[in-house]
TrEMBL record:
Residues 1-20 form the signal peptide. It holds the Pfam family MORN_2. It comes from Aerophobetes bacterium. Keywords: Signal. This is Toxin-antitoxin system YwqK family antitoxin. InterPro entries: MORN_2.
Length: 304
């Protein structure tokens, strides 16, 4: 009972840090079981692996079924110190079940699986449905704060996924649909400012991707079409800026291939380098400039 209370408290504390709306989204997929099965005295333990000193490393617990057969119902593994390393509820499946090939076994996790570090705190909580992740996966720092949470449905990421810095500040925010990234994938700096935003459609980058410096100034913009860098009629595919918002580089692309004149700039705004591309290869005069605009080097390319 004490273990189950700890688990419940950790899950609620970690998920509530996401805020009410995000909590609802993460919890939208209900697991097949909310708690570990309590170990019953009639279960038969079997040590399947030992450490060199003879202490148990992995123990399976068997429960007698209605037909008189004994089926594994729980697996426990241990650190060499004797502390619990993992406790996972099990089920027996058939070769026709989707998880059979995944585990290469008919004995698979079903319900709750909890991993512990050597000092005792919970490292992660996973929920399974006949061997497939189903529910909210949670990974925790040693102090119990969430490191990652992700919603799964029948083995695929589905719904919200978050990552966090050790102080609890969000580091990543993503949404999945049947295993594929969908919508905005957002990264954050430790100070809470946005680091980047990339739009996805069916796991492929689409539209404008934006990056920022930690001070909030724009760092770059990139335009994607079907996952490939692509310039539009008015803007290069890639524009990069320094933290004072000055342009440092402009590059054109055509369906992922560099094209047109690529230019980089000194901090004073003068060109530092430029070279033309044709069909993905350097083609024409390449030039280097000092901060005053004087040519300090050049060469010529013929299709690369």
């Amino acid at each position: 009972m004490k273990l189950r209370l700890i688990i419940t408290g950790l899950m609620l504390a970690s998920l509530l840090t996401l805020g009410a709306q995000e909590f609802t989204q993460v919890e939208s997929i209900a697991p097949v079981a909310a708690e570990l099965k309590p170990r019953l005295p009639e279960w038969r333990p079997k040590i399947v692996e030992r450490f060199a000193d003879g202490n148990p490393a992995i123990v399976l617990f068997y429960e007698e079924a209605d037909n008189g057969e004994s089926n594994p119902t729980k697996r426990m593994s241990f650190h060499q110190t004797g502390r619990t390393k993992e406790e996972t509820d099990l089920i027996v499946i058939t070769k026709d079940d989707p998880a059979f090939k995944l585990w290469d076994s008919n004995i698979v996790p079903h319900g709750v699986s909890i991993q512990f570090d050597e000092n005792g705190p919970i490292k992660s909580i996973r929920y399974y449905d006949k061997g497939l992740l189903h529910g909210t996966l949670g990974v925790f720092y040693s102090d119990g704060k969430p490191e990652q949470t992700c919603s799964y449905s029948q083995g695929q990421k589905h719904g919200k996924a978050y990552s966090f810095y050790e102080d609890g500040t969000k580091s990543e925010d993503a949404t999945y649909a049947e295993g594929l990234l969908e919508g905005d994938f957002i990264r954050y700096f430790p100070n809470g400012n946005k680091c980047s935003v990339t739009q996805y459609v069916n796991d492929v980058a689409e539209g404008k991707m934006m990056e920022w410096h930690e001070n909030g100034a724009i760092k770059s913009t990139q335009n994607y079409v079907h996952g490939k860098l692509h310039s539009d009629a008015n803007n290069p595919a890639c524009i990069s800026y320094n933290d004072d918002r000055g342009i440092v580089e402009m590059r054109d692309f055509n369906q992922g291939e560099p094209t047109g004149i690529h230019i980089t700039y000194h901090n004073n705004g003068r060109e530092s380098y430029k070279t033309p591309y044709y069909e993905g290869k350097k083609h024409g005069k390449e030039q280097f400039f000092d901060v005053d605009g004087t040519v300090i080097g050049e060469g010529k390319y013929e299709k690369g």
